[in-house]
Amino acid sequence: MSESPDEVEPDDVRHVADLARVDLDDDEIDQFTRQFADILGYFETLDDVPEVDRKADLANVMRPDEEHDSLEKDAALRNATETEDGYFKGPNVS
Predict the structure, then answer these.
(1) Suppose 24 and one of 4, 28, 58, 91 were both cysteines; which one would form an S-S bond, judging by CB atoms 3.0 to 4.6 Å apart?
(2) What per-residue confidence (pLDDT) applies to 55?
(3) pLDDT, tens digit, for every residue of 15-51?
(4) Cα–Cα distance between 44 and 47 in angstroms, integer?
(5) Residue ranges of domains in the chain, CATH in brackets
(6) Higher pLDDT, 55 or 75
């Protein structure tokens, strides 16, 4: 990766594309190099935002957990497209 965080090189884009297993041609490499540089520039503008020196007023807005009866297994599986041995069956993931 490039030495300077301000600088995006085409090799940086190729490296990220390889990690993501994305094939990019030279025109796309150039386009993404410019776009990545623009995006990093936007992050640099955050350095200009003044810090706020106050504590946030935080409050727990979640309700307490309550125990309720659950559905019977047959009722829960009633509308499932596929079940197996009393469980939901989903597609194989490879």
Answers:
(1) 28
(2) 79
(3) 999 999 999 999 999 999 999 999 988 888 888 888 8
(4) 6
(5) 10-45 (1.10.20)
(6) 75
- CB distance 37 to 2 below 8 Å: no
Structure tokens at 58: 């935080």
Collapsing DSSP to helix, strand or coil, 49 comes out as coil
Give CA torsion, residues 41, 39, 48, 53, to 10 deg. -150
Tokens 């490296």, located at residue: 15
- Amino acid at position 12, single letter: D
Token pair listed for 54: 């106050």
Q: Which of 83, 67, 64 is nearest to 75 (CA)?
A: 83
Angle at 77 between CA 76 and CA 80, to 5 degrees: 125
Per the CB < 8 A criterion, the answer to whether 34 and 40 are in contact is no
Inter-residue contact 13 to 29 (CB < 8 Å)? yes
